[in-house]
Task: structure prediction
Amino acid sequence: QVQLVESGGGLVQAGESLRLSCAASRILFSINEMGWYRQVLGKQRELVASITDYDRTNYADTVKGRFTISRANAKNTVYLQMNSLKLEDTAVYYCNIKRWLRPTYEFWGQGSQVTVSS
Result:
C-alpha cells in the first residue's frame, strides 16, 4: 500500500508564507496528476492546485497569484508554496496523486492543518 506523507503545515499570521510537501512512500508508475485539495469543517473538499505529467497547472481562482504548485517526479514529491496567506486559507490540506490511464490508481495524504491568524 502506498502512503503519501505530508509535511509543512502549521500556524502563521496573515501575509506570511508556508510550504507544503508530500512524498509517496515508494516510486509510482507514470503519475498523471499531482494535486492539493483543502477542506474546511462542514464544507466539501475543494481543489487548490494541480499539476499534470506535462507540467500543466491548474489553480483555484482564490489562490491564483499567491500559491505555486511544483513537483519532483524522480522523488514522487509534490510541493505547494503558499504566499500572502489569508484567513480564509485556513483549512486541512490534502495531497493527491492519481493515474487515470490503466492501470489506474489514486492516493491521498493524511491531511495537514494550515491555520492563518490575524
Summary: The chain is about 0% helix and 55% strand. The longest strand covers residues 91-99.
